[in-house]
Amino acid sequence: MKTQLYSWHKKNGDMVDFAGFRMPVMYTSIIEEHLSVRNAVGVFDVSHMGRMWIQGEDSEIFLNSLVPRDLTKTAVGRASYTFMLNEQGGFRDDLVFERLGENKWLLVWNAGNYQKILHWINMLLNLLTNFRDLDVEVKNVSRSTAMYALQGPQSEALLKHVLPDNTSPPSSWNILETIIADCKVIISGTGYTGEAGYEIIVLDTSIEDSSKAINVWEKLLQEGTAFDIKPCGLGARDSLRLEAGYHLYGNDISEDINPLEADLFFPPFIHIDKDFFIGKSQLEELKKASQKKIRVGLVALKKGPSPRPGLKLYEKEKEIGVISSGGFSPLLNTGIGMGYITPENNAENKVIQYQVRNKMHDVEIKKYPLYDPSKYGKSRKV
After folding, report:
1. Which residue, 144, 264, 271, 293, is the most exposed by fewest CB within 10 angstroms?
2. Of 107, 140, 173, which marks where a domain is finished?
3. What is the pLDDT of residues 197-254, one digit of tens each?
4. Residues 34 and 91 in one domain
């Protein structure tokens, strides 16, 4: 499949297959694009992600049954990160809800789970007695909208230049409906890099007529030249999220991993006192049981082969876990990773090892983010 910017990407970037789409892995270099986001501003095409309107008098009741977060606390004009669980308490997907009205929601979910989430929601509404009679209407708009991520410390200054006069960009986790390049857009103060930034959904555009999608993309790039903007591909998106400690579905979370193991069992992601949500009873049982693994951050102590998914982790030659994501950090100039280890080995700055070609390499266990939050990221002080 293709996003509405496929021709632009093909002309300017290096293309790869990802989640059923042809997407740019980079335009110039992963390192250059990564550092642009950390130091200035970058823009990503994330139109491959799923997008769905959910409306109706019972939409809040329905959605609140699907997720462990209490969505009654999500005010109109706000976005909320949460996840859907399966009946065993594992991750069906992680996602974002944007509340545009009292009974009007926009769901954004992962491209890799596109069909699964569509099937799950339609199955609940059409087959289960508990949901079948609810006043809920869903509309998949994944292919009739485009979506871009504008990220970095200069993203706010840039966005002010492209918004209508006297319109301010939304603050973190807030939503704004406005116009860019004469096109209707929904902007949320969200992102996947650890930096301040925005996700911009372009409405009423299509693969057949992608002019609106192209106009907004090119407007961001044109106005962004004064702010050293760079278009960024999947490579920088992955290295940025890994530095920030954001998990990737299919690598770091899955149907077989639960929020306790992923270190995500806390408010507001989970309100365990809610009367009901799918997976609640199993989570309560898991909370009582002894935990077998926990997600941690990893930073290599020396240059060498970077941590990679699937490599086992050791403590004094005893196997204690596995790397779920890994790669090179352009900011730290060393290998970094994310993995699962036995809880008794989870200690800040503890040195453990991973093995590449029969040689052990040292990594330190680190809390996220892996960069200095006073110098980088949305909490930076300089």
Report:
1. 144
2. 140
3. 999 999 999 989 999 999 999 999 999 999 999 999 999 999 999 999 999 999 999 9
4. no
Q: What's 296's domain CATH number? A: 2.40.30.110
Q: Which amino acid is at 221?
A: L
Residue 231 counted as domain residue: yes
Q: What is the pLDDT of residue 345?
A: 98
Asked whether residue 122 falls in the same domain as residue 237, the answer is no
Q: Which one of 241, 266, 299 terminates a domain? A: 241
Domain of residue 17, residue span: 6-49+143-241
Same domain as 193, residue 153: yes
**Three-state SS across the chain?**
CCCCCHHHHHHHCEEEEECCEEEEEECCCHHHHHHHHHHCEEEEECCCCEEEEEECCCHHHHHHHHCCCCHHHCCCCEEEEEEEECCCCCEEEEEEEEEEECCEEEEEECHHHHHHHHHHHHHHHHHCHHHHCCCCEEEECCCCCEEEEEECCCHHHHHHHHCCCCCCCCCECEEEEEEECCEEEEEEECCCCCCCEEEEEECCCCCCCCHHHHHHHHHHHHHHHHHCEEEECHHHHHHHHHHHCCCCECCCECCCCCCCCCCCCCCCCCCCCCCCCCCHHHHHHHHHCCCCCEEEEEEECCCCCCCCCCCEEEECCEEEEEEEEEEEECCCCEEEEEEEECHHHCCCCCEEEEEECCEEEEEEEECCCCCCCCCCCCCCCC
CATH code: domain of residue 147: 3.30.1360.120
Contact 203, 186 (CB under 8 A): yes
Task: Indicate whether 35 and 183 sit together in one domain.
Answer: yes
Which amino acid is residue 205, in one-letter code? T
Q: Are strands 318-329 and 229-232 parallel, antiparallel or unpaired?
A: unpaired
Distance CA 44, CA 53 (A): 22
Mean pLDDT of 38-51: 98
**Predicted structure pTM score:** 0.96
Cα Rg of the chain (Å, integer) = 21
Domain match, 42 and 164 both: yes
Q: Summarize the confidence of residues 301-319 as an average pLDDT.
A: 95
